[in-house]
Amino acid sequence: MQFFTIDAKSNLTNEQILASANEGECQYIEKITEHLIQAEQWLKQYLARPHVSLGRKGPVCPFVPAALNKRKALVSYLLYDTSTQDREIESMLLAYGEYFRSLPESHLNTIVIVMVNKEEGEALGAGIVERVQRALKSEFMSYDTMIGQFYSKCPITGLHNDDFYPFDSQLPMIGIRHIMPQDLVFVSDDSEHTKIYLEKHNIFNREQLMQVLGSVGMAKNENVLRHVEAIYR
After folding, report:
1. Residues in contact with 151: Cβ distance below 8 Å, sequence separation at least 6, in sequence order
2. Is the pLDDT assigned to residue 100 strictly greater than 80?
3. CA separation for the pair 18, 58 (Å, rounded)
4. In the chain, which end has fewer C-beta atoms inside a 10 angstrom radius, N or C?
């Protein structure tokens, strides 16, 4: 695993990435470099900024600007091709999860892993990302972490606008961060995920859930309330 700290005040350079490349990956270094720099730009120019379709004020991801300023955001990469099996990617992502848990405790800790195809095209990576994220989500949540999927035409809609797709990205990527109260809408479609979420936040009834959501300004969001109703109907 190679990690690069994303800093709000400086940018990744070709030289930094080249100096960290493994000997067996040198033939792909140009593509690795291109993808890592594009992932950095995605963090800074998309997630850390407001968006006209977001449906609320502030950046797309409210935690990313602080993570960049505090140097808590890391970017890495995984190489794959048509012969790569999902279980290989899952094994590597579990190792990333273990590394994430070893970091000094901070709710801002973030790891973004960009998928780099040794061959051409990114569609294959999108499928891999969707499948492995689904397969590993429960295990990651059991450690109080979220594993998120990002790829072109990802169908998940935003909290404040059903016509906005915040997980849509040109490159297939995986994100790892801590579970936040706002994550209710991303886990309540699955009973096992909902159970883990409620346990991690010590929530035992509807009133407690509403208090937690109120503490982060989400108790009146219609989209969130629909998910609450689905849990306690």
Report:
1. 122, 125, 126, 129, 130, 167, 168, 169, 171, 172, 173
2. yes
3. 35
4. C
Q: Which residues contact 129 (CB under 8 A, 6 or more apart)?
A: 115, 149, 150, 151, 172, 173, 174
Q: Is 37 helix (H, G, I), strand (E, B) or coil?
A: helix
**CA dist., res. 9 & res. 210, Å (int):** 38
Which one is predicted more confidently, 63 or 233?
63
Task: Report d(CA 202, CA 72) in Å as an integer.
Answer: 26
Give the Cα separation of 31 and 178 in Å (integer).
Answer: 29
How are the residues of the chain apportioned to helix, strand and coil, as percentages rounded to the nearest 5? Answer: 50, 15, 35
Reference 132, options 184, 169, 96, 182; nearest CA is 96
Q: What's the pLDDT at 67? A: 94
How many residues in total does the chain contain? Answer: 233
Residue 200: other Cβ atoms inside 10 A: 18
d(CA 127, CA 62): 27
- Please write the tens of the pLDDT for every residue from 161-201: 889 999 999 999 999 999 888 777 777 777 888 888 888 88
Both structure tokens of 39: 């992932």
In whole angstroms, what is the distance from residue 87 CA to residue 81 CA?
13
Residue 119: how many CA atoms within 13 Å on its side-chain side? 10
Give the E-state strand segments of 50-107 in sequence order: 73-80
pLDDT at 217 over 80: no
d(CA 125, CA 147): 16
